[in-house]
Amino acid sequence: MLKSLFDVGKVVVDVSRLQLANPECVALLPSVLNTAGGWPTARMVVVDAEGVFEDAARRVHCSDLLPFYPATEAGVRHVDDRPARVRRDCAVPADPTASATARRFLQEAAADWDLSPDLTEVAQLVVSELVSNAVEHAGTSSTVALELTDETLKISVRDGSTTQPVARPLDMVSFRGRGLPLIDRVSRHWGILDHPDGKTVWATLSLVPEEPV
Fold first, then answer.
1. For each of the chain's 213 residues, which pLDDT tens digit applies?
2. Which terminus of the chain, N or C, has less C-beta within 10 A?
């Protein structure tokens, strides 16, 4: 599948005659798509006549990363359609180039996903701040993940430190160090997810500006 995605860019995977011994294995399908560059660089649909794989994907929370269809004809017809949720990630080193690397990664995704210039600008501020915090306070490399739905863009940065970030007063004059107050101001929601070996700080941005109350 991976070779076909790299060579052709589009794959229709028919799993109708396969037995699924371990439901978690279904997560390999969106993982392969992500490795190949994700939509729209790589496009995949799954033909699943009995719905077994789609049910398993729903249980492991990845059913919206791939379109599932009951017949090959429908899969071929919809292979170019964007999945309900599009994901892309990038490893970022713990050095002074980290923020610039993350911003370039975001710019490339924004261009592929046809995001508005205003949203892209705000997203660059968010990803730069989150990655800068990972380098300065966690002192580890990090992974930047972007997830796009019809309504939001979610930006997540996972680092290797369990130390919780501390909010500081917002300084809009400073290029850096604006921290969590900036994230809170520009995002719809944000939060921190703890892991045994680190943490993920995430923020979601609205694709459509909210109307003032």
1. 999 999 999 999 999 999 998 989 999 999 999 999 999 999 999 999 999 999 999 999 999 999 999 999 999 999 999 999 999 999 999 888 999 999 999 999 999 999 999 999 999 999 999 999 888 877 888 999 999 999 999 999 999 888 877 655 555 555 454 577 889 899 999 999 999 999 999 999 999 765 544
2. C
Q: Which residues pair with 14 in a beta bridge?
A: 47
Using the structure block, give the residue that is written with the tokens 């995002």: 187
Using alpha carbons, list the distances in angstroms from residue 32 to 28, 70, 141, 196, 209: 6, 21, 23, 26, 33
Question: Cβ distance 47 to 12 under 8 Å?
Answer: yes
Longest Cα separation, the chain: 60
Rounded-to-integer distance, Cα 36 and Cα 47, Å: 19
For residue 20, which amino acid is it? Answer: L
pTM for the whole structure: 0.86
Angle among Cα 74, 80, 82 to the nearest 5 degrees reads 105
